[in-house]
Amino acid sequence: MTKWERRNQAPAKPSSPGSELPVDFLKLIEETMTQALEPGLLEVRKIHPESSFKAQGAIFSDEILLSITLNHGPLVLSATTVHGSVDYNPNAEKPAVNDLLALILDSLGSLFQFYLDPEFPERITQITDASLGALEEAPFEWTPLRLDEGQKTPVHVKIDKANPLLDTLAEDWLKKNDPNYENISAKQSKINLGDAEEFLEERIEAIRAAKAGSGSTGGGPIRH
First CA to last CA across the chain, in angstroms? Predict the structure, then answer.
C-alpha cells in the first residue's frame, strides 16, 4: 500500500485511504513528462541510462495528491520525487478534479523543467545526486506555488529523495520469496519497511559485485 505524502492531516480524525488515480492516467502523465522534458532526460541518461518518470496519485475527501519520481532504474537507490497537493471539495462544481490535476501537473512539470534544463548542466549533475542535502533552495516542506498571478488555487509542492520503485521492488520480492507474505499482509503484520529497504540494498550491492566486482551510485547536487 502506498504511503501518501499527505499535506492535509487531521489529527483528530483517522486518515481516509483515498482513491488511487487510474493506471492509464498515470501512464499518460509519465509519457507527457518524458516528451516534454526529453532534452534534459537524455542528459540524465548519460549518467543513468535507465532513468524514467514514475507517477502516483490519489484523491482524498479534502485533497488531491500527485507525485512524480525521476528514478534511475532498479539498481540505483537514489531518486528525486516532487509532490503536489491541492485542496479539494467534492461538493463544489468548480474547480473540477481534472482542472486540479492539470494544475498540479503543470506545477510539478515546471519544477522538473528547472532542474532538467540542458543549458545548465550543473543542474543535471545535481539532480542525480543521492543526497537530500544536495538540493539547494528546494521546497523541502509543503510550499504554495502559483505559476501565474491569475491562478486562484495554489498548488502546494515539496521535494524529497523518496524512491517508490524501491518500495515496489521490496514488496515484489517478498511476494515471490516469502511463503508467509500473504498471511502477514492480511493481518497487517509488523513488516518494517526500513528493514525491507536495508535488505534490498544489500541484495542490490550483491548483484553489483557479481556483475562488476564493485560499484557505487554517485551523482551531484540539485538546485531550485
Answer: 31
